[in-house]
C-alpha cells in the first residue's frame, strides 16, 4: 500500500454524472480525482443512451419516410442490419474509452482505474485489477456516482438462461429470430421497437395494464398500437414465473400456465443501485440502497458525502444526473470556499429543484413519447388544483405536413391557482424536439397569459402550443 493521495474532491464512478461532478470541481479551482472500474463514460456511453439511440435512429427515420408522399415507395425494404449495427458500434467507440480518458486529462482530472470503496470519512481505497491498493483522501467531498444496474427477478432457472439485460440488448451483434421482452417501461418499448424493425419477432410481456406506466396513459396506448402495427405482440396483465434454456431455445412459463419459446429473452424490469460494495457500511450507511440526499445532493446526515445521479433515485435519466452534477459541483465548491449561506431555496444555484418539478424525458419509439414535469395523476396526488388540456395533434398543420396520417396527442397540466404549467406530454412522430420548450415553460413558471404571446412559427408542429392555449381559453 502506498501513501494516500489527497485531492479536494474524489468521485467514485466515471459515467457522465461523475465526469461532470469532477469537471465542475476543476472549473471552480478544486483538485479532483475520479475512480472507475469499467469504461470511462459509463453506462450511457456504451450500453444505454448512445447505442440504443443509434439502433433506433434508422428505425424512426424509415418510419417517418414511409409517411411522406413521393418517398414512401423508396423505403419499403428491410433495414441494412449490418450497417445499423456498425453505426451503433461507431457511437460506442467500439467499447473503448480512449476519447473519454483524453477528455478527463484535458480538464485536469486524475483517473484511478480500479474498484473504489469508501474506507471512512473522506477516504476512498482503490483496488486495481492486479490487486494493488491505493488510498485517496478528500479535503472537501466524496461523490458517489456509481449509477444503477439492471434488476433481475428471482425466477427459477434464470441464471442458467443467461438472459439479456439492457446491456446485451444494446450491444448484441445480430438480431435474434424471436425475442421475448419482459417489462413495459422505456427500455422494454425502445428495444422492442428496435429489434422488431431489425428482423426479430418480438413479444412484449407486461405485468401491468399497459406500457410506459410513468407517463400519461395515452402515451403507452399509442406506442402499443404502433408496436402491434409493426408486427410485435404486446400482452398485458401477464407474469413470467419460470424460464429455462434447452438446445439454445428459451422457454418462458407464464402465470396462466402457458409457455412461450424464443431465441433470447430480455428482462427490462427495473434498476438497482450499484452501492452494494462501495464501503457504505464504514460510514454508517446500508450497502445496496439508494442514498437519500438533500437538494444540494449531499447525503443526509453528512457534511462531506454526496450521491449524484441514479445512486440517489431522484430521476434515473442521464441528462438529469448531469444536471444534478452541475448543482452538486457548485455546492461543493461553494462550501469549500467557505460561502456562509448557499442558494438552496427553490430554483437556487445550489438546489436541484428540477428533479421535483421539471424533469424532461423522451422515449424514442415510433411514435415518440415526450414529457416534462408532472402527469395529471401526479399533480392531483400532490394536492394541486389542476386541469388537463388535451389536443389531437393531427389537427396541427405542421404535423400533417410532417407525415401523412399523423397520429399524436398533446396534454398540458395547468395549475389553476397560479395559471402556470405543471406538466406537458406530447406523443407523435418528431415530438422529441418539442419537449425542451415545455421544460422551459415549466422551469420558468411562465404564466399562460405570457405564453399566449409566444407565437409558434407556421407551419410547424410547435403550433400545438397555440392550439393547447386556445383550448384552455375556450
From TrEMBL:
<feature type="binding site">
    <location>
        <position position="53"/>
    </location>
    <ligand>
        <name>FAD</name>
    </ligand>
</feature>
<dbReference type="InterPro" id="IPR050151">
    <property type="entry name" value="Class-I_Pyr_Nuc-Dis_Oxidored"/>
</dbReference>
<keyword id="KW-0547">Nucleotide-binding</keyword>
<comment type="similarity">
    <text>Belongs to the class-I pyridine nucleotide-disulfide oxidoreductase family.</text>
</comment>
<dbReference type="GO" id="GO:0050660">
    <property type="term" value="F:flavin adenine dinucleotide binding"/>
</dbReference>
<protein>
    <submittedName>
        <fullName>Pyridine nucleotide-disulfide oxidoreductase</fullName>
    </submittedName>
</protein>
<feature type="binding site">
    <location>
        <position position="270"/>
    </location>
    <ligand>
        <name>NAD(+)</name>
    </ligand>
</feature>
<dbReference type="InterPro" id="IPR004099">
    <property type="entry name" value="Pyr_nucl-diS_OxRdtase_dimer"/>
</dbReference>
<dbReference type="Pfam" id="PF07992">
    <property type="entry name" value="Pyr_redox_2"/>
</dbReference>
<dbReference type="InterPro" id="IPR001100">
    <property type="entry name" value="Pyr_nuc-diS_OxRdtase"/>
</dbReference>
<feature type="domain" description="Pyridine nucleotide-disulphide oxidoreductase dimerisation">
    <location>
        <begin position="359"/>
        <end position="465"/>
    </location>
</feature>
<dbReference type="GO" id="GO:0004148">
    <property type="term" value="F:dihydrolipoyl dehydrogenase (NADH) activity"/>
</dbReference>
<dbReference type="GO" id="GO:0006103">
    <property type="term" value="P:2-oxoglutarate metabolic process"/>
</dbReference>
<feature type="binding site">
    <location>
        <position position="310"/>
    </location>
    <ligand>
        <name>FAD</name>
    </ligand>
</feature>
<dbReference type="InterPro" id="IPR023753">
    <property type="entry name" value="FAD/NAD-binding_dom"/>
</dbReference>
<dbReference type="Pfam" id="PF02852">
    <property type="entry name" value="Pyr_redox_dim"/>
</dbReference>
<feature type="binding site">
    <location>
        <position position="116"/>
    </location>
    <ligand>
        <name>FAD</name>
    </ligand>
</feature>
<keyword id="KW-0274">FAD</keyword>
<keyword id="KW-0520">NAD</keyword>
<feature type="disulfide bond" description="Redox-active">
    <location>
        <begin position="44"/>
        <end position="49"/>
    </location>
</feature>
<dbReference type="InterPro" id="IPR016156">
    <property type="entry name" value="FAD/NAD-linked_Rdtase_dimer_sf"/>
</dbReference>
<dbReference type="InterPro" id="IPR036188">
    <property type="entry name" value="FAD/NAD-bd_sf"/>
</dbReference>
<keyword id="KW-0285">Flavoprotein</keyword>
<feature type="binding site">
    <location>
        <begin position="183"/>
        <end position="190"/>
    </location>
    <ligand>
        <name>NAD(+)</name>
    </ligand>
</feature>
<feature type="domain" description="FAD/NAD(P)-binding">
    <location>
        <begin position="7"/>
        <end position="320"/>
    </location>
</feature>
Amino acid at each position: 500500500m502506498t501513501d494516500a493521495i489527497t485531492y479536494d474532491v474524489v468521485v467514485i464512478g466515471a459515467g457522465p454524472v461523475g465526469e461532470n461532478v469532477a469537471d465542475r470541481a476543476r472549473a471552480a479551482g478544486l483538485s479532483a480525482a475520479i475512480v472507475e472500474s469499467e469504461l470511462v463514460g459509463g453506462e450511457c456511453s456504451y450500453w444505454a443512451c448512445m447505442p440504443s439511440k443509434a439502433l433506433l435512429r434508422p428505425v424512426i427515420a424509415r418510419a417517418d419516410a414511409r409517411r411522406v408522399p413521393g418517398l414512401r415507395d423508396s423505403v419499403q425494404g428491410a433495414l441494412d442490419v449490418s450497417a445499423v449495427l456498425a453505426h451503433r458500434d461507431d457511437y460506442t467507440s467500439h467499447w473503448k474509452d480512449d476519447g473519454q480518458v483524453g477528455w478527463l486529462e484535458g480538464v485536469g482530472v486524475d483517473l484511478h482505474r480500479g474498484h473504489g470503496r469508501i474506507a471512512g470519512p473522506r477516504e476512498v481505497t482503490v483496488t486495481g485489477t492486479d490487486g494493488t491498493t491505493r488510498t485517496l483522501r478528500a479535503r472537501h467531498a466524496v461523490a458517489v456516482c456509481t449509477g444503477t444496474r439492471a434488476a433481475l427477478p428471482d425466477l427459477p432457472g434464470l441464471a442458467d438462461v443467461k438472459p439479456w439485460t439492457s446491456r446485451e440488448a444494446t450491444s448484441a451483434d445480430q438480431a435474434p429470430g424471436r425475442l421475448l421482452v419482459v417489462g413495459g417501461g422505456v427500455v422494454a418499448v425502445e428495444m422492442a421497437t428496435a429489434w422488431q424493425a431489425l428482423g426479430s419477432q418480438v413479444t412484449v410481456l407486461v405485468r401491468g395494464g399497459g406500457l410506459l406506466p410513468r407517463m400519461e396513459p395515452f402515451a403507452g396506448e399509442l406506442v402499443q398500437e404502433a408496436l402491434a402495427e409493426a408486427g410485435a405482440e404486446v400482452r398485458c396483465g401477464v407474469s413470467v414465473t419460470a424460464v429455462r434454456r434447452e438446445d439454445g431455445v428459451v422457454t418462458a412459463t407464464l402465470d396462466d400456465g402457458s409457455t412461450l419459446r424464443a431465441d433470447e429473452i430480455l428482462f427490462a424490469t427495473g434498476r438497482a443501485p450499484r452501492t452494494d460494495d462501495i464501503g457504505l457500511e464504514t460510514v454508517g450507511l446500508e450497502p445496496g440502497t439508494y442514498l437519500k440526499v438533500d437538494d444540494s445532493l449531499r447525503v443526509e446526515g453528512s457534511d462531506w458525502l454526496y450521491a449524484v445521479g441514479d445512486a440517489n433515485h431522484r430521476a434515473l435519466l442521464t441528462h438529469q444526473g448531469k444536471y444534478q452534477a452541475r448543482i452538486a459541483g457548485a455546492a461543493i465548491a461553494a462550501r469549500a470556499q467557505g460561502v456562509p449561506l448557499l442558494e438552496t431555496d427553490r430554483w437556487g444555484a445550489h438546489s436541484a429543484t428540477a428533479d421535483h418539478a421539471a424533469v424532461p424525458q423522451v422515449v424514442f419509439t415510433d411514435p415518440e413519447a415526450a414529457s416534462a414535469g408532472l402527469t395529471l395523476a401526479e399533480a392531483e396526488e400532490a394536492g394541486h388544483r389542476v386541469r388537463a388540456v388535451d389536443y389531437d395533434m393531427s389537427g396541427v398543420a405542421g404535423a400533417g405536413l410532417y407525415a401523412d396520417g399523423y397520429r399524436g396527442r398533446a396534454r398540458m397540466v395547468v395549475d389553476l391557482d397560479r395559471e402556470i404549467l405543471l406538466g406537458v406530454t406530447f406523443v407523435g412522430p418528431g415530438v422529441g424536439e418539442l419537449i425542451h420548450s415545455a421544460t422551459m415553460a415549466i422551469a420558468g413558471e411562465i404564466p399562460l397569459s405570457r405564453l399566449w404571446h409566444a407565437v409558434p412559427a407556421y407551419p410547424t408542429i410547435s403550433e400545438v402550443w397555440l392550439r393547447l392555449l386556445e383550448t384552455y381559453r375556450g
